[in-house]
Amino acid sequence: MLTLTATLAEPEHFSLVEKLLLVVLVAASAAGFWRRFGVVLHKILKSKKDPSFHLFPIGKRVWDFVCEVLFQTKVIRQRPLPGLAHAFVFWGFCAFALVTLNHFAVGLGLGFLNPAGFFGRFYTYFAAVFAIACAAGIFGLFVRRFLVRPKWLGKKLSWESGFIAFLIFLLMVTYLASFFVGDADQATRILWWVHSLAILIFLVIIPHTKHLHLILSPATVFLSRGGFSQIPPLVGDEDFGLIAGTDLTRLASLQAYSCVECGRCTEHCPAANTGKLLNPKEIILGLRSYLNDLGPASEEPLLGKYNAQEAAFQCTTCGACEFQCPVGIEHLPIIVGLRRGAVNTGAWEDEYGSKLFLALERGANAHGLPASERDKFIEKAGLPIFDGTQEYCLWLGCMGGYDPKGREIIADFARVMNYLGTSFGVLRKEKCCGDPVRRLGNDLVFQQLAESNLEVFEQNKAKKIVSICPHCVRTIQEDWKEFGTPPQVEHHSEFLARHADKLPKQANGESIVFHDPCYLGRYRNVYEQPRTVVGLAGELVEAPRNHERSFCCGAGGGLVFLGEESGERVSKVRAAELVATGAKTVGTACPFCNSMFRDALAEKGEGAPQLLDIAQLTARGLPARGGS
Amino acid sequence: MKIIVAIKQVPERDAQVRIDAAGKWIEESGLQYALNESDAYALEEALQLKEKHGGEVVVLTAGPERVGPTIREALAKGADRAIHIDCADLGSRDALGVAKLLAAAVKPENPDLILTGLQSDDLGQGQTGVIVAELLGLPHSSLILHVEKTDTGLTVKRELEEGWFQTIELPLPAVLTIQSGGNKLRYATLMGIKRAKTKEVRTVTATELAVDSAPVAILERVVLPQKQKSTQILPGNPKEAAAALVEKLKFEARVL
Amino acid sequence: MSGIWVVVEERDGRVSRNSWEAVAAGQKLAALTGQAANAVVIGAQTEPLAAEVAAKALAKVVRIEHSLLAAYTADGFTLALQQFIEAEKPYYVVFPHTYQVRDYAPKLAARLGQVLIGDVTAFAEGPTFVRQLMQGRLNGSYRHSGNGPCFVSVQAGAFRADEAQAGTAAISTFAPTIDPAQIRTKPSERFRGAAQTVDLGAAQLIVGVGRGIKDPANIPIAQELATALGAELGASRPICDNGWLPMERQIGSSGQTISPKLYLAVGISGAIQHLVGIKGSQCVVAINKDPDAPIFEVADYGIVGDLMEVVPALTEAVKAAKQ
Predict the structure, then answer these.
(1) pTM (predicted TM-score)
(2) DSSP for residue C88
(3) CATH topology of domain C4-182
(4) Count of helices and strands (H, E) across chain B
(5) Strands of C205-209's sheet, edge to edge?
(6) Of C138, C144, C191, the CB nearest to B26
(7) Hey, which bits of C237-280 come out as E strands?
(8) Are residues A459 and A561 in the same domain?
(9) Within this chain, do residues A179 and A279 fall inside the same structural domain, yes or no?
(10) Domains, chain B, ranges and CATH?
(11) SS3 category, C238
């Protein structure tokens, strides 16, 4: 019968032989660790420096570190049960810091923590609580990986994960068992050695497996690029994007080595969920394999053996992957970087892609339609021209200017602005903001569009811009920064929400399920404003995947301009999810989402919910044709 | 193969057409310019031939200073060098006059093949290439969709009316006018633009070429056509509307 | 220098419709200038062609015949006509603006120090010749200057073949001197494009069906119209998504981009993805029962009505016109 001795047992004096053995083993373990870790560190440091990395402002970095690393917020929030289990393991490790140090000190006769003393007793009990939590956590994770086998962890069983789980469990068990034996017992010494060996073996294994994240990920989280989907500028005349190993930067390499293979990115990826080749986890692991096999000085193409070009071009840039990653991997700059490498050198040969690029090389909009079509719309809709005196410049964009549905949204939003008495005008000439070519990696055309548009804004002295399209908002606000100073721009949901108190509340509004656009939600952190607007028109219903977990409509990343998708249509999957809520109306805040759902909902036939943008939902509540 | 591609910079397809003060041409201020569409296909054909058989692609263009970006675009897409005939009065020369300039610039180059686009997006005459062939005493063929090099010269695929085609064999050197749509055009890349910075652009003035330019066909004035493009809704019951439509398609639109 | 000479082309052994239009144009030019209108036929066996042409109100019809003119070549036709023109010294030479004429007339004109005024749509006092510029957005008036013949080609459909007045003309022959070494190009027999199931991208006439067709059982109605027109059948995306027509017939930004002479949109509302696919069409006709359908914005002609009635009526009208 085991008796709890209430203090942690420590073996009594170690012989000289044992001490020497310990030193040798520690040295060997450290050497084994360094042998691999040194190589990884070297590969990361040998990678090219990141041209636009700024350590300051440091506040956000510290905050993210505290939240995501120390408090494991993202780990827990996005996958609660496994996340909590992992958190316990992590906190267990943290709590054990002193314990482990003392453990080895004891082996050399230099133990500094007295388990019988006041602090020692407190601390060892404290650690024991964490040990139980940690053991429970690791056990749960083991069961999940080997018995439940969620598909996001991949098909192959990872024996190294199993072994590590075993080691961690062993560490906790040996620690806890030490409460049940006395200092003088033989068992104590055995437990001590087993515990030590477990640690020393673990140490060697760390850099050889995904457990490298133990060391790297706090740094990875801290050293993020500084913004969501932060695409770095190209530097010099020979930089075209991520073509070969020599193009990988330190951040990219650090992130590639930090991957824990948890599969959270893939779990939320619209392409991976609809049978496409693209798998965000595999993109990152592909880079890691490349670095392992060839290193950062290789000229071998990144797209080829390690990652398929086809996969890179199936990404809608929805950002679910980057958003979900608990270790700070930023997938979007990498995927866009790979696309840049292919497009900026002409290596990407795609019929629809070429058509898009040629259309934007020559003309004003992504559809390849004559600019006079936009002029005709402005005239027909009676939209005022911006002359510098109005408060807002209303940006039409390629959808608002040319798409019949986009034009309806603009017309309704104009009605609302008139009702509110807000002065606005539209530019005489607009070119595409460049979002599709930016996300597809065509820096030549993007630069031309950004510079041309910036000049027009300058000439027209437009200070405040409002747009119905989250892609335009993002591209104008963030991506144009590389070429000048864009004016202040906001999305119409932000504008409408600010004026919510002046807008009529509609009685007997129907159930409306709101679909969060990727470029408004995850990219811009705007979730509540469109909901406020929806709330004025009817009863808000949430889709199963909502807010930051909203599932992409499939149009982004320039994909709406490319040919037919392989596998299932992303828009169809999301539309089915929205319809299944039973809501009478689907509310959108992006003309591309609207366009994608239009066909998908029409397939449902007579019973399909109606599809309305928040501007249309607002306008229908206004008094008939008042105030225009 | 040494291939010369004659290209033209024309007002952008969407350009708003306003008549200038003299009533002889369109108002050029505020116009955006671009590479003529069928010339882009001619350039693409030349680049593909170079990729297959090696050699050099030289672009040739006549016009004022503003043709610079179009030359750079052609170099960015893969042409090796360019010849710019600096000429400010292109509009006052007729097709023969322009062709004389081009032929004079081409002659010392002794190319294996000269390609031009089928016709320009502004004047749309479709003659320059054919006349250049005559001036240089070379065989030619027009409306070409596909070019293949053979041991004896070239085999080309020529478009005929109503969905028919024929192949023509001709010796080199020769001149071909290239129809749009035969190939998929390549897009301009960042890498291409950067490399274009180091490629040679040789300028020669129209006066240096010393060709006579008195035009034979003179464009006296331009006017906007009476009927602007608008939708004609045909009224009446189905039978009446159908009959009216067929009449319009036959004699007004002339597509039946 | 005297006279107007119309160059007549053959199609399948008979005078082509475009050539009759050129004859009508030549007669109009004769009335305008007071010159006599004549015609030439070129080939290796021109007797039957000449007989056809001589039944029109022309002064003379000349048969330019040589064995090396059996198949069209730029070198052959240019040489033959050059010799004829140098002998005859006409004021005007009028061609139909065909692909063949575009291939040799500029060469012929240049050889004689002249420039072809091509694709003319009308004659005016002077005479001045009107042709389209900037893809039909502008009309330009051209005048010929200097000595030497004036070469003009007329746009298909600009003059009406049925307006070529009848009469009788005197037929004579002209034998040019052509050496085989002077013919540098070797043409093959003409052929159709490679047999593909559908190539909407190359089709010149297309009928597109959209959701307005309501039921796959109604598609044959549109197919009949297409057959009557000699057109290909295409569809907007929803029709192909439903499997009512194969995916290769999809017209739109993620399907085929078309650029036919004539596109008939039947029961198609005009979503942007579709509009982008059809913007290269020369002439767009829309048939839809919704007068506000966006397709009408881009159509040249439209019929607002039930396609179930309009389409069969149109099929009948087309068949009648083709007789």
Answers:
(1) 0.89
(2) H
(3) Rossmann fold (3.40.50)
(4) 7, 13
(5) B232-233, C301-304, C283-288, C262-266, C205-209, C232-235
(6) C138
(7) 262-266
(8) no
(9) no
(10) 2-205 (3.40.50.620), 227-256 (no CATH)
(11) helix
- Pair A477, A556 in one domain: no
pLDDT tops 90 at residue C237: no
Residue A446 · residue A493 · CB < 8 Å: no
User: What is the interface pTM, i.e. ipTM, of the complex?
Assistant: 0.91
B33/B11 Cα distance (integer angstroms) = 4
Residues of chain C with C-beta less than 8 angstroms from the C-beta of A598: 271
Burial of C152 (0-12, 13-18, 19+ CB in 10 A): buried
Q: Are residues A463 and A522 in the same domain?
A: no
Kindly identify which residue of chain B lies nearest to residue A346, measuring between CA atoms.
Answer: B189
Tell me what the mean pLDDT of segment A425-435 comes to. Answer: 96
In CATH, what number does C200-322 get?
A: 3.40.50.1220
Closest Cα in chain B, distance from residue A323 (Å): 30
The residue range of the domain holding A40 is 16-217
Tokens (6 digits) for B240 = 């009446």
Residue A6 pLDDT exceeds 80? no
Residue A137: CB atoms within 10 Å: 24
Neighbours of A118 (CB within 10 A): 8
Find the CB nearest C138 among B125, B222, B242.
Answer: B222
A182 and A73, same domain (yes or no): yes
Q: Which residues of A touch C271 (CB under 8 A)?
A: 403-405, 595, 598-599
Beta-carbon contacts of A386 under 8 Å, excluding residues fewer than 6 positions away, are: A393, A394, A424, A425, A426, A427, A428, A460, A462
**Nearest Cα to Cα of residue C168 among C95, C34, C27, C61:** C61
CB contact set of A385 (below 8 Å; sequence gap of 6+): A378, A425, A426, A427, A428
- How confident is the model at residue B100, as a pLDDT? 96
Work out the burial of residue B173: count CB atoms within 10 Å of its CB; fewer than 13 is exposed, 13-18 middle, 19 or more buried: buried
Whole-number average pLDDT of chain B: 93
- Of the candidates C270, C271, C276, the beta carbon closest to that of A369 is on C276
Please state the domain count of chain A: 4
Check residue A299 and report its DSSP letter. -
pLDDT band at A628 (very low <50, low <70, confident <90, very high): very low
- Paired tokens of A394: 């209303």
Q: Enter the tokens of residue A360.
A: 């934007």
Q: Which helix (H) or strand (E) holds B175?
A: strand B174-178
Same domain? For A411 and A548 the reply is: no
Rounded to the nearest 5 percent, the helix, strand and coil shares of chain C are 35, 30, 35
> Hunting for tokens 């044709």 — which residue is that?
A625
Q: Where are the alpha helices (DSSP H) in chain B?
A: 37-53, 68-77, 95-106, 128-136, 190-196, 206-209, 238-247
Tokens of A152: 């996001």
Question: Tokens 């080309």 appear where?
Answer: B156
Mark which of A316, A343, A370 sits at the end of a domain.
A343
> Among A81-85, B82-86, B186-190, C255-259, which is the least confidently predicted range?
C255-259
The Cα–Cα gap between A128 and A131 comes to 5
What confidence category does residue A124 fall into, taking pLDDT thresholds of 50, 70 and 90?
confident
Alpha helices in A490-569 (DSSP H): 492-498, 528-537
- Beta C205-209 vs C283-288: how paired, if at all? unpaired
Q: Do B121 and C135 touch (CB under 8 A)?
A: yes
**DSSP state, residue A323:** H
Q: Could you tell me if A465 and A612 lie in one domain? A: no
Helices then strands, each counted (H, E), chain A = 27, 8
A274-329 pLDDT tens trace = 999 999 999 999 999 999 999 999 999 999 999 999 999 999 999 999 999 999 99
Neighbouring CB atoms inside 10 A of B134's CB total: 23
Residue C70 in 3-state DSSP? coil
Cα–Cα distance for residue pair B161/C190, rounded to 1 Å: 10
| A600 plus A524 within the same structural domain | yes
